């Protein structure tokens, strides 16, 4: 099956939308204030600790996939490099060079995330499993800055290739994300203390 530039763009865009959606849920739950963190800890700290770890690992995996090479052998990746390879004939040489420089910059910026993916998340490198100190520390800012750069890259290339604007700031409808869970937990705790 022959894939078009639009197909690759849609596949990469889908990854971006899903990543931003899941990260927004993470922020709603775990970056929404001390009162909410206390509520989560009182409602099942082990479960919410695991959920937070999984959401962070998911973000690292997705960012790593999006910055992977265009492919290997006859397999293509849904990555920004593959998108750029496909777009080479559509973009002017100057535009292509500009996007290639941006892609290389993003790739360089996410190497610590990719290293975590390769050594500790997607694979279990024995040396790293025995000595976690060898892995560089990661921070929310590493993930969020990578996401921001990827979103900006994709928005800009969408305008260049298809003359359309795309915004990857996925808004979760009120009552359908982490905020709804927090409200339900707050009510449950209030009812529990009133009945206890």
Q: Please bin the fraction of helical residues.
A: over 70%
Mean of pLDDT: 90
Largest sheet: 2 strands, antiparallel
Structural class: mainly alpha
Indicate the proportion of strand residues: under 5%
Distance, first to last CA: 63 Å
* Count of strand segments: 2
Output the helix-strand order.
HHEEHHHHHH
Label the overall shape: globular
Count of runs of 4 or more consecutive helical residues: 8
Biggest sheet, spatial arrangement of strands = 1-2
Unreliable stretches, pLDDT < 50, 5 or more residues? none
Rg estimate, integer Å: 20 Å
Q: What secondary-structure arrangement, pairings included, does this model have?
A:
Blueprint (H helix, E strand, L loop, with lengths): L4 H26 L3 H33 L4 E2 L2 E2 L3 H8 L5 H17 L1 H11 L4 H5 L9 H23 L15 H18 L1
Antiparallel strand pairs: 1-2
């Amino acid at each position: 099956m022959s894939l078009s530039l639009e197909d690759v763009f849609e596949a990469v865009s889908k990854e971006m939308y899903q990543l931003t959606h899941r990260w927004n849920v993470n922020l709603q739950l775990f970056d929404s204030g001390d009162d909410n963190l206390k509520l989560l800890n009182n409602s099942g700290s082990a479960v919410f600790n695991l959920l937070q770890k999984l959401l962070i690992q998911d973000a690292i995996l997705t960012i790593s996939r999006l910055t992977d090479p265009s492919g290997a052998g006859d397999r293509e990746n849904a990555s920004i490099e593959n998108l750029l390879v496909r777009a080479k004939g559509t973009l002017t040489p100057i535009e292509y060079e500009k996007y290639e420089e941006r892609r290389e910059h993003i790739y360089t910026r996410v190497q610590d995330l990719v290293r975590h993916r390769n050594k500790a998340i997607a694979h279990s490198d024995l040396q790293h499993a025995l000595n976690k100190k060898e892995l560089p520390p990661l921070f929310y800012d590493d993930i969020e800055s990578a996401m921001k750069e990827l979103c900006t890259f994709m928005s800009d290339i969408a305008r260049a290739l298809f003359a359309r604007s795309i915004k990857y700031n996925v808004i979760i409808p009120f009552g359908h994300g982490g905020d709804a869970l927090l409200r339900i937990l707050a009510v449950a705790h209030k009812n529990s203390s009133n009945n206890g």
